[in-house]
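Human:
Care to share another protein and its fold?

Assistant:
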Amino acid sequence: MADKASLRTLLERIALALEGLAAQSHADASQTPEFETADSYVWQADTATLKPVRHVHAVPLDLLLGIDQQKATLSENTRRFAAGYPANNALLWGARGTGKSSLVKAIHAALPSPKPALVEIHREDITSLPALMEILSGLERRTLLYCDDLSFSKDESSYKSLKAVLDGGLMGRPDNVIFYATSNRRHLMPRDMMENERSTAINPAEAVEEAVSLSDRFGLWLGFHRVDQALFLKMVHGYAKRFDLPSEGLEDAAKTWSVTRGTRSGRVAWQFIQDWAGAHAQRLEF
């Protein structure tokens, strides 16, 4: 009986030891992710891991029309960063569907290999940004950190921690990381939020300065604006030419499509082209 009891105790100790090793291995993996298996990743805040993305839908740069200045400026900034030179955080702001997120992905896709990793952090996970920055700072690979549709609602205070991480904190932004964000708002927060800061503060001017200073952490501000009909049709023709789609009736159909959507933008042009290609039983392949 004594031998059986001793054996049971020994097995229990072995089991506990193996569980401890497994837990430590998992923790180590979350802190030092395998960062060479892909060029793009999504940050998963709940597990503190980087999930590889094997295929990113990136529109070729030459198909992004009407944003030549934004394209040239962001391309040059990204090229410098990829080459190991100083570069700025960038805020791409403006009307929805005007190519902000498409430009970030297209520029990254166009970089020569070996290229920096593209890591997307979701808006709702922005409070975990300090933890992600700490992980990325310990890795050799340069990283383009990207947040799509970044904005803050009324009474939300997480923007204050974001400011410190981007520029002003003790750790600041690691040299191997750059941060790009897209937003419909130039200052990342609604006007009524800034007015609320003004009305409740002892010094209203200082309160507004505190609220809008987040956008100052971005060295590049690139504005994106709605397109007129001529540019919209140019986008449509550009897509149609690239995919060898029928041109007869194209413009009239595109105009009707934009009217039903109530706006013109690069996104609306692309949505129309998908419908046009489908109606003519043709595939879209980059």
